[in-house]
Amino acid sequence: MNKLNIVAIQGKSGVGKTTIAKILVSQNPEVYHLVNSYTDRPKRYDTEVGHLFLTKKKMDIIYDGDNVVAKTQYGDYRYCTTINSFLPDNTKCNLYIINKKGIYDLREYS
Description:
Blueprint: E1 6-10, H1 17-27, E2 32-34, E3 37-39, E4 51-53, H2 56-63, E5 68-74, E6 77-82, E7 93-98, H3 100-109
């Protein structure tokens, strides 16, 4: 993997991780890129950002694929991201909302 600029935002559900990321990206779009995760959970609300919502069948294909750099399961739902979700050119900082296990996966991948 090429060297990437990554800031991992980690915390419990509902503490404001996505809110912080959205503010950083909206105020500094030339600096920050929000990395989307794939998930097979339903949207909580129509304007939700930070995830690409997939069917369980499509998630099966991606979740065990070679391009996955971090994955986890929370309750009945899976989350993952692929290397293609990151901007590789170091012109922006990739903001990645992640849990503790995902940080270990990302370190292992790199």
